[in-house]
């Protein structure tokens, strides 16, 4: 529900902070066991490369640029737990060839440094291949089953 609502709010023109607040309210109204979730939102202007990364309780995200991998962490809590939202917005500027990578916490079974190194090693791969390599390595490293999602998005120049 949170993912679908977030998508609709962002498409309607709401910013990440407003979206997080409205999702938080919806989760509070829903109640029950599944009333908390992490939010990890990336909004990119494909013409300028200007981007906003918004995190609330989510695993680190990464920006691959020139063969290097930078991690973006946020000290925050999932939405739906508190009356307000404690999230963090980071402004980024993507250049053609840069790849943004968002992961769930299952990908962290590799450890943060190993994951950062793996991303840097695969930074020249197609985004789909990079995501697959990370997911497979995380699955092999996991001590117990966990969901693993890896999203890789590359900004490219128009042809």
Describe the structure in your own words.
The chain is an alpha+beta fold and 159 residues long. 31% of the residues lie in helices and 25% in strands. The protein has four helices and seven strands; from the N terminus they run ααββββββααβ. It has helices at residues 2-11, 16-30, 112-121, 127-141; strands at residues 39-44, 50-56, 61-65, 68-72, 88-93, 99-103, 150-154. The strands form two sheets. It has a four-stranded antiparallel sheet with strand order 4-3-6-7, with helices on one face. The longest helix is centred in the N-terminal third of the chain and has 15 residues, at 16-30. The model has no long low-confidence stretch (mean pLDDT 89).
Itemize the secondary structure elements and their pairings.
Elements: H1 2-11, H2 16-30, E1 39-44, E2 50-56, E3 61-65, E4 68-72, E5 88-93, E6 99-103, H3 112-121, H4 127-141, E7 150-154
Antiparallel strand pairs: 1-2, 2-5, 3-4, 3-6, 6-7
Brief digest:
The protein has 159 residues and is of the alpha+beta class. The chain has helices at 2-11, 16-30, 112-121, 127-141; strands at residues 39-44, 50-56, 61-65, 68-72, 88-93, 99-103, 150-154. The termini are far apart.
Q: Can you write the helix and strand succession as a string?
A: HHEEEEEEHHE
Side by side, the strands of the main sheet go 4-3-6-7
Helical percentage? 25-40%
Shape: globular
| Beta-strand proportion | 15-25%
From the alpha-carbon coordinates, what is the Rg to the nearest angstrom? 16 Å
């Amino acid at each position: 529900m949170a993912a679908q609502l977030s998508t609709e709010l962002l498409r309607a023109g709401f910013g990440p902070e407003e979206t997080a607040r409205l999702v938080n309210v919806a989760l509070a109204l829903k109640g029950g066991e599944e009333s908390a979730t992490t939010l990890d939102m990336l909004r990119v202007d494909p013409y300028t490369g200007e981007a906003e990364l918004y995190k609330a309780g989510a695993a680190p995200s990464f920006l691959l640029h020139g063969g290097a991998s930078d991690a973006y962490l946020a000290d925050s809590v999932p939405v739906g737990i508190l009356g307000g939202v404690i999230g963090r917005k980071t402004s980024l500027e993507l250049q053609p060839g840069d790849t943004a990578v968002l992961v769930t916490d299952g990908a962290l079974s590799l450890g943060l440094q190993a994951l950062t190194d793996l991303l840097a090693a695969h930074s020249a791969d197609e985004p789909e291949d990079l995501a697959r390599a990370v997911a497979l390595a995380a699955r092999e490293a996991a001590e117990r089953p966990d969901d693993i999602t890896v999203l890789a998005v590359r900004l490219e120049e128009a042809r």
